[in-house]
Amino acid sequence: MTITPGILKLAIPFSTAVLLISCGESEVPAPELSFAETFQAQLIEAKPGDVIEVPAGIHEFTRSLSLAVPGVTIRGAGMNDSILSFKNQVQGAEGLLVTADDFIIQDIAIEDTVGDALKINESTNVTIRRVRTEWTRGANTDNGAYGIYPVQSKNVLIEGSVAIGASDAGIYVGQSSQIIVRNSRAEYNVAGIEIENSTFADVYDNIATNNTGGILVFDLPNLPVQGGQATRVFDNQIFENNNENFAPEGNIVGNVPDGTGLLILANDNIEVFGNRFADNNSVNVMIYSYALGGRSIEDPDYDPYPEQIYIHDNEFVGGGTVPGHALLIPWHKATGLDSPNIVWGGLVKQGGSTENLICIANNGEESFLNLNGGASPEAASTDTTAHRCSLPRLPKISFAFPPDD
Q1: What's 11's DSSP letter?
Q2: Which of 57, 152, 207, 272 is most buried, judging by how many CB atoms fall within 10 Å of its CB?
Q3: How many CB atoms lie within 10 A of CB 265?
């Protein structure tokens, strides 16, 4: 029986890779896979020292990515050019999860993840340069919690990066040590930049605007790493952080009032200088104990009181017109005054001294309020006599990190 070539082609299943053409045979090459289809394999098969290039374009993913190989660099063509998009994500808690030392990521964007955008866990020597994390629908409770999110890590450099739309914190470093966050921008997050339960951090030359709270320095109970201290916040632009708080219910940052510039909670040895605070509607700077307002503390190892806070040589412009903290609101109603630029909750350890607890100096036309625990508006004081002091300057954070390409 004679079978023409055309009929023979139709008789062979579609899945076969071989087609008979005329009287001979030839292989049809398999379709070239997209970058998105090969990226996770590259992460799994990487070896220390590898550089994984992410080409320009929008690369769509439906599942989380992960990297567990040390010494790998992920490098894109630019934070507005090489985009990892998770807008159709159906699986995973993060966009990219890294559990490896000596990690570098730069010139790339991670967008619209279900959960955290870039999480780095238990890593040493982390370099994040010119990375953008963003939820493109804007401020929304259903956005992921964290944008750039190193936790329980050491020697963390974040620079030239952008974080937009996180329902907790745009740039967050938690339970870590030796940290630099610089030359970055945080906008339309609940917390713009947050240093939590961490030690030895420099946060400088950043822009924090249009968040609920611009910069937060927290120490919280019931976490494996506690004792947050030795953070410098300097030379930042912290202005118009008046965005409505959109944190999910029950989230601790859900308690941050709209219009907060800098909030220091239960942290010690903090130096704040050279910053420009402007038009943060609730308060430009607020310092208070975790116990303020009667919050219960069940962790016996937790110290809820901020101590040795040195605020000097900052510029204050406007702000305080719409006090939002629960204890500032009655003071505002009783006095008709705007929030002073620097507000202290006033709680101290039982039997503790207030000497050199909160020191302020050379802040231009600064104003100050001690809420004295918030017992009543009448108990609050604007007397700065006990706070005209100075504290030792904190040292510069310095550690080795790779040069910028």
Answers
A1: H
A2: 272
A3: 23
Burial of 338 (0-12, 13-18, 19+ CB in 10 A): middle
Q: How many CB atoms lie within 10 A of CB 387?
A: 19
Handedness of CA 241, 242, 248, 252 (dihedral sign): positive
Phi, psi of 397 (to 5 degrees): -80, 130
Q: Which residue has the tokens 């339309």?
A: 188
**Vertex 400 angle, CA 399 and 401, to 5°:** 120
One digit per residue, the tens of pLDDT, for the chain of length 405 reads 333 333 333 333 433 333 334 444 556 666 778 888 899 999 999 999 999 999 999 999 999 999 999 999 999 999 999 999 999 999 999 999 999 999 999 999 999 999 999 999 999 999 999 999 999 999 999 999 999 999 999 999 999 999 999 999 999 999 999 999 999 999 999 999 999 999 999 999 999 999 999 999 999 999 999 999 999 999 999 999 999 999 999 899 999 999 999 999 999 999 999 999 999 999 999 999 999 977 889 899 999 999 999 999 999 999 999 999 999 999 999 999 999 999 999 999 887 777 889 999 999 877 999 999 988 999 999 999 999 999 999 999 999 999 997
Q: What are phi and psi of 376, to 5 degrees?
A: -165, 155
Record the tokens describing residue 241, joined without a space: 């952080």
Q: How far apart are CA 181 and CA 203, in angstroms?
A: 5
Query: 58 has which bridge partners?
Result: 83
Run of H or E including 330? helix 328-335
For 21, other C-beta atoms within 10 Å of its C-beta total: 11
| Beta strands, E only, 207-323 | 207-209, 213-218, 229-234, 237-239, 260-265, 268-273, 276-278, 283-288, 307-312, 315-317
Judged by phi (left if over 0) then psi (alpha if -120 to 50, else beta), residue 322 lies in beta
Q: How many H helices and E strands in the chain?
A: 3, 32
What distances in angstroms separate CA 34 from CA 31, 42, 61, 194, 248, one per listed residue?
9, 12, 11, 36, 36
Report how far residue 390's alpha carbon sits from residue 397's, in angstroms, rounded to the nearest whole number.
Answer: 21
Query: Is the sign of the CA dihedral 132, 136, 138, 141 positive or negative?
Result: negative
pTM: 0.91
Q: How far apart are CA 31 and CA 159, in angstroms?
A: 39
HSE-up (13 A, CA, CB side) for residue 200: 13
Q: How many residues does the chain have?
A: 405
